[in-house]
Amino acid sequence: MPCSSFGDSGSDENGRLRSFKLTESTFLASLMPKKEIAADCFIEAHPEYDGRGVLIAIFDSGVDPAAAGLQVTSDGKPKILDVLDCTGSGDVDTSKVVKTDADGCIRGASGTTLVVNSSWKNPSGEWHVGYKLVYELFTDTLTSRLKKERKKKWDEKNQEEIAKAVKHLDEFDQKHTKVEDTNLKRARKDLQNRIDILRKQAESFDDKGPVIDAVVWHDGEAWRAALDTQSIEDDLDSGKLANFIPLTNFRAERKFGVFSKLDACSFVANVYDEGKILSIVTDCSPHGTHVAGIATAFHPKPLLNGIAPGAQLISCKIGDTRLGSMETGTGLTRALIAAVEHKCDLINMSYGEPTLLPDYGRFVDLVDEVVNKYRMIFVSSAGNSGPALSTVGAPGGTTSSIIGVGAYVSPSMASAAHCVVEPPSEGLEYTWSSRGPTADGDLGVCISAPGGAVAPVPTWTLQRRMLMNGTSMASPSACGGIALLLSAMKAEGIPVSPYSVRKALENTAVPVGSLPEDKLTTGQGLMQVDKAHEYIQKSRDVPIVWYQMKINQSGKSTPISRGIYLREASACQQSTEWTVQIEPKFHEDASNLEELVPFEECIELHSSEKAVVRAPEYLLLTYNGRSFNIVVDPTNLSEGLHYFELYGVDCKAPWRGPLFRIPVTITKPMAVVNRPPVVSFSRMPFQPGQIERKYIEVPLGASWVEATIQTSGFDTPRRFFVDAVQICPLQRPKKWESVITFSSPAAKSFAFAVVGGQTMELAIAQFWSSGIGSQKITVVEIEVVFHGININKEEVVLDGSEAPTRIDAEAILASEKLSPAALLNKIRNPYRPIESKLSALATDRDKLPSGKQILTLTLIYKFKLEDAAEVKPQIPLLNNRIYDTKFESQFYMISDTNNRVYAVGDAYPNASKLPGGEYNLQLCLRHDSMQYLEKLKQLVLFIERNLEEKDVIRLSFFSQPDGPVMGNGSFKSSVLVPGKKEAIYLGPPSKDKLPKVLHSPFFSHLHRSSERVNGACNICAVLSTGVCIARSNLIWKAIIYWSRREEKSPKEPCII
To answer: Its family (predicted)?
Structure first.
């Protein structure tokens, strides 16, 4: 059945929705877009297929069970079946057990005397107690609001006390005109001190937040929990423990509480480990509730419904409140465990990070198992790092078993949700939506869906719904659409499989854009629920199989890839041959005799451009797979971006469409041959949403770029995204980005670092809604100038002797001014743990579906600060990787000797300000392999601290090797001429300039202590070579490690 139109709208052959006129009903409908993916007409045709019978796991920041539209489904069932904090950020230690006294009171963990409700059943008489600072459960936004409101009330009361104190002093002075008696003097001084103290405490007011007491007990049937929240309430009679309605695990009774009317924050309680842990579950941002609302919200007004109002969900909080909503490995693993335990059909995850290696890591391995063994469909956001290519994030855009979704905006969304003056004439991808391909050539984006909506948000935001946009919103839109398909498949008795559903989505999506390379932006196109449903019905008897591709270049020992990506100039200069291995992939429960043995398909191979991609015509594929060779010839292609596909079609059933696709992406760069190396692009016309991509072979010897962008020909302000991306082996894509707004025609310049010899994509995009109401085209000109000073050392090591270090500098491209400067501004101390403990985690939330119990390795490090300092813990082996690591999780806490926690962190450690004193750093690592964890029992940790400005050491450069000793030949600057190297010498720091911390007794003690790594302390510094040419002030940076040798132990090795 065709979809109904909004007003006079229609759609062209590419499915791009054209402009229209809004009415009240179409306005409301466009706030929660459904027409774009044909979800509205599908439900209209099949009201009972609205997601009923489908369970979705929302991996996100947490879902508020009190939010609008998230209480019941369209058929009256509970909407949310479970609410979990998988991160542990809301955990309360309730291992302490107390009993009531004769008055029915207990002593809470905070020291408060609590009255227990006499009607609560507790056969054992044991009460588990714990406490929590309530701000540790709230988002920064909510905490900020509460602090302002509490500060306002506190100021009012404090001002009253100041007024009383002033009045008392005034009355005293009126009564005692002469104060000569000692007692009277003391009395007056006390009155004055009271005023001074009240004023001073107003200036130094620091609200650490209310403390809530938690009590857990077993009532003979289930574990119960209650909170005492009197410290939050204005009325002291409110929030008492005895008045609290006890909660049990949410999944049992689906009840939640609210801390107070002031915060309006909902929470859920879950009890673990026989009452020893109480998990108080709150959301760490509105993001997760918004995502859940897009996928499944049900309202009395159908226009406000989510995509699948009949679906149910569980909330798996993977964003850690302590880390500002950052996801953690612990949260991700526990969420997968919960999804399997609840037998979910779908997972939506609108989270992600950049990655070093695509389709690799511990989380990827676990996802593969969940998808292939338990038949769950995993949907995730592709990322918001566009418009440049190869910006898809992990896991959504880089993992084969996950459906990665890009973000699309239609004219109706632009008019209603974004309130633009004039909508675009047709739909398009949001400018910031991440693009493929991945570094190993995979398409990256699978499909696209609407990437914006006005959807429910938590009650603590003090509003019912709000607008958000991002691929985070596109993913639940697609997930909701898939829920409709699963609802239909279950009702019609069609087996559910991620393989068959994904194939239906890809082969029925409507293309967005007419160019082949548009697939790198939108994937196979905008998903269409109705057409996918028809495809699934028609293919119900087709074998349920996925086609896995392993590709490598013939004659070269290159890593296995999932596509072909020719990016560098050398790869585009000749034809290359590639070996493709196609392996049919069945679910783990597939029958050998009934499914694997009979599987045989005759496949016809098609190339989208035979002049570039050549392959055999036919292929007979059986269960054990088949390999074949293809030839890619890019030599006759013009400069720029080219995209091709090799795909296989079932000879007997061509209606099935491509069974597999091999993406071939070629970015043929232009060479920079002129000297000085300058590239110009003149009079490029831009309209809203338009992107221009220029591929440049960065000259060897270049290390930075100066670019100038000039605009003209427009009236209203214009907003541009400018990205520069390079891909280097085994590194995350090197990306420089800037968002530039031109209020009037003007020129703007910027500079950024580059890697010589590597292709650079320069992507320039006019933001999709910028200038949308104007009839004038923006004209852009850009000039790119390459500069470079080559230094022979990326890391400069001063070994602690009096000898200087030689550095050779050379300018290859053009004359450059060399003005080096070096600072020693950080101290980096290495430590080994003083204690390590390997143990099995106790709760079921840490047991994998396979039955393996996850283990934890706890490492304790000690360090001391003589004075207050800003410190940053670093673990080189593990830091900066979440998805692309084989280790499951890392988490640290820094506490003092009184167990006060000052800082927490994970894979991305932050600097924290600490007062002077002794500290413990507790590092927890998780995995199910004892072998892996055993190897980390002596893991080295670095504590890096910034030196105070007065302690920063400025090093000197010399033109002669004897300069540091003779005191002459100081080097300030010179002009480097192409073809001629210049040697400079970096002198060691003077001993009298060393910071005090290096001379302190404690430092010397630690230097020889077994707590530290044997060897010297490293001072980490940044060596900056200033370059002043034309408009440039960019610096080249290297790292200096200066080693301070212990004079009493000259034979002790230096570990650099």
So the answer is: Belongs to the peptidase S8 family.
> Do the domains spanning 24-88+282-494 and 791-827+951-1044 agree at the CATH topology level?
no
- Look up residue 1016 and give its two tokens: 């010297």
Class of domain 791-827+951-1044: mainly beta
Residues 118 and 104: their CA atoms lie apart, in Å, by 7
Residue whose entry in the numeric block shows the structure tokens 């290495």 = 830
> 10 Å Cβ neighbour count for 202?
15
> What residue segments make up the domains of the chain, in order of their start?
24-88+282-494, 91-133+212-279, 141-203, 546-668, 671-787, 791-827+951-1044, 833-939
Active-site option among 9, 64, 74, 287 = 287
Of 827, 862, 870, residue with least CA distance to 1043: 827
For strands 377-381 and 346-349, give the pairing: parallel
Catalytic (active site) residue 472: yes
Q: Which CATH number fits domain 24-88+282-494: 3.40.50.2300, 2.115.10.20, 2.40.128.50, 3.40.50.200?
A: 3.40.50.200
The answer to whether the CB of 544 falls within 8 A of the CB of 466 is no
Nearest C-alpha neighbor of 559 from the set 549, 551, 567: 551
Place of tokens 């000749």: 574
Domain 546-668: CATH class, spelled out: mainly beta
pLDDT by residue (tens digit) across 559-606?
Answer: 899 999 999 999 999 999 999 999 999 999 999 999 999 999 999 999
Our answer to whether residue 287 is catalytic in this structure is yes
d(CA 1025, CA 973) in angstroms, rounded, equals: 10
Q: Which CATH number fits domain 671-787: 2.60.120.260, 2.40.128.50, 3.40.630.10, 1.10.1740.10?
A: 2.60.120.260
| Residue 60 falls in the annotated catalytic set | yes
944: tokens are 């890096």
pLDDT over 70 at 9, yes or no: no
Confidence of residue 427 (pLDDT cuts 50, 70, 90): very high
Q: Which of 60, 82, 320, 723 is catalytic?
A: 60
What's the predicted TM-score (pTM) here? Answer: 0.92
Burial label for 382, CB within 10 Å (0-12, 13-18, 19+), is: buried
What is the rounded distance in angstroms from the CA atom of residue 207 to the CA atom of residue 344? 42
Distance of CA 711 to the CA centre of its chain: 34
Residue type, 565: Y
Query: Smallest Cα–Cα separation from 702: which of 735, 677, 683?
Result: 677
Choose the catalytic residue: 472, 539, 561, 703: 472
